[in-house]
Design brief:
Low-confidence stretches: 76-90
Largest sheet: none
Radius of gyration: 18 Å
Structural class: mainly alpha
CATH class of the largest domain: Mainly Alpha
Number of domains: 2
Strand content: under 5%
Distance between the termini: 62 Å
Number of helices: 8
CATH superfamily of the largest domain: Winged helix-like DNA-binding domain superfamily/Winged helix DNA-binding domain
Helix content: over 70%
Order of helices and strands: HHHHHHHH
CATH topology of the largest domain: Arc Repressor Mutant, subunit A
Shape: globular
């Protein structure tokens, strides 16, 4: 019985990690591979992980695995898929096209930012994590999270203005 409950909790946490990777722009198959590898490592090292930090540990391991694979294959793809835009079938075509354009523009702007800034923005606004959760996940202080998020928003706004002033 206890084993079943642990498996359900692990499944739920891995689903959260999978959705986070997709929101971060990781391709579907790569996200599946990263989550599978993360599950394997969790089962292997579960006795040494503190139960309060399971989610952050899982996310960090999945991201590290994905980054390692990108380095090995020398690729890094950040793209927003239709499911990330939050499209609904009953919307008008104009709204669908505008939403896709906004998502593509946001993706282009994120790529221009420092990796730390883009990751912080995604954690805060796409994953709706609190400062303390981001702090724990990234291994930096809450004050650093707040300061870097401020800088990230300012940089994003700067790049946005540059793009629209140049048109």
């Amino acid at each position: 019985m206890e084993e079943t409950i642990k498996n359900e909790v692990l499944n739920r946490e891995l689903n959260i990690v999978f959705r986070y990777l997709l929101k971060k722009g990781v391709p579907h198959l790569d996200a599946q591979d990263a989550v599978q590898e993360t599950a394997y490592k969790y089962l292997k090292y579960s006795d040494s992980i503190r139960s309060t930090k399971v989610r952050s540990w899982l996310i960090r391991v999945a991201l590290n695995y994905y980054y390692d694979q990108c380095r090995k294959n020398k690729k890094y793809i950040l793209h927003l898929e239709e499911e990330m835009v939050g499209l609904q079938v009953d919307e008008l075509p104009e709204f669908i096209i505008l939403a896709k354009e906004r998502a593509e523009e946001f993706s282009r702007l994120l790529i221009k930012l420092k990796p730390l800034y883009s990751e912080l923005l995604l954690l805060k606004y796409e994953s709706d994590l609190f400062y303390a959760e981001i702090s724990q996940l990234m291994g930096i202080s809450t004050g650093s999270v707040k300061a870097n998020l401020f800088r990230a928003r300012r940089s994003l706004l700067k790049y946005y203005k540059e793009d629209h002033d140049g048109r």
